[in-house]
Each structure stands twice: as C-alpha cells, then as structure tokens.
C-alpha cells in the first residue's frame, strides 16, 4: 500500500490527539508532513510531536493552502464555523479530505459541501462520523441487517452527556454558544442522528424536537456564589466546581488539552484562576440547551426517540432496539450488548472487541479506512460527505422544530434549503 502524506489544519484535541496519533502507530501507512494552527503553543507542540519541518508549519489554513499542494491528504479539524472555506479550497487543489464533524455550522454550507463532493468525485472526502467505525455500533448494525430478530420497529437512543462534560464543553467551553459555533444537536449529536440513519438504513421523514436551557443559567446563581470557582464559598459542595473537574477528577483527561496546551497541574490551576474554564457555570455566556428530546419517523414506519441530556452521571450512549421478534439493549461505555429473542428464556450478552483509541475504537478505525481509501483511491467509504449531509440536515431540522414548535417534514426542509442556497456548484 502506498505511503500517504498528510497535512493537518487545527492542532486542537481532535487534530492533535484523535486522528494524527494513528500515523505515529502506523508509520508504514503514512506520515504527517504539515500543520496549520493559529495558537502558537499548540502549533509548537504539534510540530515537535510529529516532527514537522519549520517551513511546513503555518499560522493559518490560508497560509498552508496558499502553497502548492503539499501532501496527498488533509485532515481539517479546526473550529466548526471555519470548516467550509479550507475544505472547498483543499478539494479544489486536489487533496483527499477528512473533515471533522459537523461539516459546517451553517446549513447552506453543508449543502454546498455535498455538492462539492459530487463535483470532486475522484477524491476521497470523508466526514469524521466515527461511531460507524466502532465495534459496538457495528455489531448493532450486524444484528439489524441479519434479520435474526425480525424487522426493526423502533429505537430508543440516549446521549448521556455527563454533567462534568457538559459543564466543560457546552457551558464553559468552545461549544457553549450557538451564535458562535453550533446548536447542541449539531455539535454533539450529528453523530447520533447519523447512527440512527445507519442502523435503520432508511431516510428520516419527520422530526419533532423539544428542549431548552433549564439549569446552567444566571437565574440559578446564588448570593454566596462567585463568578470564579476559586473564589466561591460553596465550591466544595458544587458538582460543577472547576477545581474538582480539572484538578481532582480524572473524568476529563482527554479534554484537559482544551484548558491548557500543556495541562500540568500547575498550568491547570492557573488556567481556572484566570481563564474561561474557571467560571461559575451559572455565570457563563452559554445558550445551548442542556436537555433535548427528538421524535423521529423514518421510512417504512420505523420510529425513534433521541434524548440528549447534561444531567447524567456517566458520559455514554445507551440504546434499545425493538424488533418484531426480539429486543436489543446496549451501553456504549460499558461495551455491553444484550440480545433477547421473544419466546426464549435465555438472552445473549455480547462484549464487542475492544480497540484502543477514542470513541470506543472509532477514531483509529476511521483513520484506517481513510488511509486505505486514499491509497487505493476507493470512494466507497462508510462516512462519505455525500452520505453525511443527511444527518446534518436532520440536526438543523430538529433545531428548527425545537425553536418553532413544529413537526418538520425533513425532505421539504432539505429541498427548501437547496432553493435558498446562494449558488449551486455545477456537476
């Protein structure tokens, strides 16, 4: 297999720690040869870790993409609102592209990226919907497709965000305000909508969503609290204490890089004293919902409910699939699937294969498929950009439903958006 050269735009936690490490462990498949990152410390850390030459280290994606094509492929893992332009330019320059989800925080840009994928059909253009690559969800897909429990009738799917993770990412962190980044159902849960599409194998016809920001807002700020956790009288009894989450608990190890580029205990203590991650959760500029439920109808009358919530102890996904002749329940974090066949007093417990990487092994399995696809020039991948547009449209339709209290016809919503697009990219 040909060895692939790769550039990376965005040296944050996903670019630095989720995808690029695959090539450190599999140097025979490819190597990272360039990076673009505006934050100096992160850029320097990435350069040193992946042994990037100085001339291939850039402060912005504009600088990197202004050069002649530097590599075979490019991973785009910068912020949501900045996905469209570098992806468009990279495709036009002939790069194979792996784009972090969501594709964009603007629906018209998602539509255009789908059109670009069709235009540049000779290039691999994948989206990082890593859950399709996990052994856990792959086993659920196998059960659905096998028909061993009959026809799939309905799904209950929960995204248990975890109170500490929600406080980190969606109250204090980068995805706290939909005016700046993305609504929660897009930023966090386009993964889950994609999984529902994949498991059912059907398009979504209707979606209706409900939810709001109920708890982490200024109305719940009390007199004996403080703007910063380090100054707060009730910090020791508050589960959302930044001191507990960042200095005492191990639950957010993978996310500490967002707090400080070199997350030593000393640097983290300084960061929560002076920076945004030390703010009281009731005194932040957040506006994304902290709980949301969606009801979905797919083709062939398959129904689903999708519930996302900040108010859970564990950070996991749980799911129940109901068939005409049995049911299946699963816990993603515990890596357990239980299969019950009607009329049989016994049940089967499955522990899918454990793969060492983020998202239950999905991060590395996705990278494996991307590298193989680029090497063999195979466009038949699980999460092509063309395929991934649908789950993004569903997310925007769900948010529209939540805000307007309407049941949304997804096909009409999608078609209306295409008509409103500023331009259409030719075939």
TrEMBL record:
Q: Which residues form a coiled coil?
A: none
Q: Which InterPro entries match?
A: Gfo/Idh/MocA-like_OxRdtase_C (IPR004104), Gfo/Idh/MocA-like_OxRdtase_N (IPR000683), Gfo/Idh/MocA_Oxidoreductases (IPR051450), NAD(P)-bd_dom_sf (IPR036291)
Annotated Pfam families: GFO_IDH_MocA, GFO_IDH_MocA_C
Q: What is its EC number?
A: 1.1.1.369
Which residues belong to any copy of the Gfo/Idh/MocA-like oxidoreductase N-terminal domain? 4-126
Q: Which residues form the Gfo/Idh/MocA-like oxidoreductase C-terminal domain?
A: 141-394
Highest taxon listed in the record's lineage? Bacteria
* Molecular function terms from GO: oxidoreductase activity
EC class (word): oxidoreductase
What keywords sit in the KW lines?
A: Oxidoreductase
The family annotation for this protein states: Belongs to the Gfo/Idh/MocA family.
Q: Which PANTHER family match?
A: BILIVERDIN REDUCTASE A, BINDING ROSSMANN FOLD OXIDOREDUCTASE, PUTATIVE (AFU_ORTHOLOGUE AFUA_4G00560)-RELATED
Name this polypeptide is given: Inositol 2-dehydrogenase/D-chiro-inositol 3-dehydrogenase
Protein source organism: Terrisporobacter mayombei
What's the name of its gene?
Answer: iolG_1
């Amino acid at each position: 297999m040909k060895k692939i050269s790769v550039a990376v735009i965005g040296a944050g936690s996903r670019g630095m720690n989720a995808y690029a490490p695959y090539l450190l462990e599999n140097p025979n498949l490819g190597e990272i040869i360039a990076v673009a990152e505006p934050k100096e410390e992160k850029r320097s850390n990435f350069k040193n870790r992946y042994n990037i030459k100085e001339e291939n280290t850039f402060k912005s994606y504009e600088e990197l993409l202004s050069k002649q094509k530097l590599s075979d492929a490019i991973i785009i893992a910068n912020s949501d609102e900045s996905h469209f332009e570098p992806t468009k330019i990279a495709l036009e320059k002939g790069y194979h592209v792996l784009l972090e989800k969501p594709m964009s925080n603007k629906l018209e840009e998602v539509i255009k990226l789908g059109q670009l994928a069709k235009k540049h059909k000779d290039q691999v253009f994948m989206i990082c919907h890593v859950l399709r690559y996990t052994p856990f969800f792959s086993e659920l897909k196998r059960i659905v497709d096998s028909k061993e429990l009959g026809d799939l009738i309905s799904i209950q799917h929960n995204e248990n965000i975890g109170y500490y993770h929600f406080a980190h990412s969606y109250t204090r962190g980068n995805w706290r305000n939909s005016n700046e980044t993305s609504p929660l159902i897009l930023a966090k849960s386009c993964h889950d909508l994609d999984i529902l599409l994949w498991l059912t194998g059907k398009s979504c016809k209707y979606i209706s969503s409900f939810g709001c920001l109920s708890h982490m807002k200024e109305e719940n700020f009390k007199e004996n609290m403080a703007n910063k956790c380090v100054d707060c009288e009730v910090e020791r009894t508050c589960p959302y204490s930044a001191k507990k989450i960042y200095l005492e608990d191990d639950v957010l190890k993978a996310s500490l890089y967002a707090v400080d580029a070199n997350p030593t205990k000393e640097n983290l203590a300084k960061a929560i004293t002076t920076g945004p991650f030390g703010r009281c959760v009731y005194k932040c500029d957040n506006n994304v919902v902290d709980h949301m439920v969606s009801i979905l109808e797919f083709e062939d009358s398959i129904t689903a409910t999708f519930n996302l919530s900040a108010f859970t102890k564990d950070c996991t996904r749980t799911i129940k699939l109901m068939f005409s002749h049995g049911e299946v329940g699963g816990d993603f974090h515990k890596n357990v699937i239980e299969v019950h066949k009607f009329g049989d007093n016994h049940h089967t417990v499955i522990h899918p294969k454990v793969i060492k990487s983020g998202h239950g092994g999905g991060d590395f399995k996705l990278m494996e498929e991307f590298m193989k696809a680029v090497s063999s020039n195979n466009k038949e991948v699980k999460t092509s950009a063309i395929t991934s547009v649908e789950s993004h449209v569903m997310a925007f339709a769900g948010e529209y439903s939540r805000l307007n209290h309407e049941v949304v016809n997804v096909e009409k919503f999608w078609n209306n958006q295409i008509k409103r697009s500023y331009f259409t990219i030719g075939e």
